[in-house]
Amino acid sequence: MRPIRNRLKEGKVKVLAIGRKSGDFFAKNQNVYAGNENSLYNALNFTNTAVIAERIMDEFAKEKWDRVILVYNQFKNAAVQILQTEQLLPIIPPATQEKSKTVSDYIFEPNKESIVSDLLPTAVKTQLFKAVLDSHASEHGARMTAMNKATDNAGELIKDLRLQYNKARQAAITNEILEIVAGAEALNG
């Protein structure tokens, strides 16, 4: 949430939350909140993610937003998630490498424009789907790690309680033996 809070300080920002926790967090500030897509996790697949990506691309095309930035947790392993911030729209071309001196002439079928107009929306949908899947995997990894730690802590607590119980039981048994011995000596004495 910190990178988003930093962006909020920059100026006019809208947040479209995907997930309950982020939605609850940003719903408190209606100036920032642009909605929530909680239902995506009920049926997480490319088709449902593509619908959200199309909504984002349409609003970007209508110039409702001047840029779209993804903030999500990238799954590294069950214990480690890395916060990522990527610009989704407008698409930034990768850093150009040194221009080749040889000129290649390619023939595009159909043509360059139609290939790009089909390819770019698919790339945006795929990038959003990857981010959602990474976040989902990160959440499950964090839950798994938390449950594992809770299980370990519960095991330690059971061990400590069992030790305390056995000490108390042993003290009670010792007291009973002392009372029996004292009673027997009182009868003899």
Task: Tell me what the structure shows.
- With 189 residues, the protein is α+β, with helices and mostly antiparallel strands.
- It has a domain at 37-93 and 105-148: Pyruvate Kinase, Chain: A, domain 1 (3-Layer(aba) Sandwich), CATH 3.40.1380.10.
- It has helices at 2-10, 20-27, 46-61, 112-188, and strands at 15-17, 33-36, 68-77, 80-89.
- The strands form 2 sheets. Strands 1-2 form a two-stranded parallel sheet. Strands 3-4 form a two-stranded antiparallel ribbon.
- α3 (46-61) packs across α4 (112-188).
- It is elongated.
- The N and C termini lie far apart (79 Å).
Per CATH, the class of the domain at 37-93 and 105-148 reads Alpha Beta
* H/I helix tally: 4
Low-confidence stretches: none
Percent range for β-strand residues: 5-15%
Fourth CATH level, the homologous superfamily of the domain at 37-93 and 105-148? ATP synthase, F1 complex, gamma subunit
Tell me which CATH architecture of the domain at 37-93 and 105-148 applies here.
3-Layer(aba) Sandwich
Integer average pLDDT: 86
Q: What string, H for helix and E for strand, traces the elements in order? A: HEHEHEEH
Q: Find the structural class using helix and strand composition.
A: alpha+beta
In total, how many beta strands? 4
- End-to-end C-alpha gap: 79 Å
CATH topology of the domain at 37-93 and 105-148: Pyruvate Kinase, Chain: A, domain 1
Which bin fits the share of residues in helices? 55-70%
* Major sheet details: 2 strands, parallel
The strands making up the biggest β-sheet line up spatially as 1-2
Shape: elongated
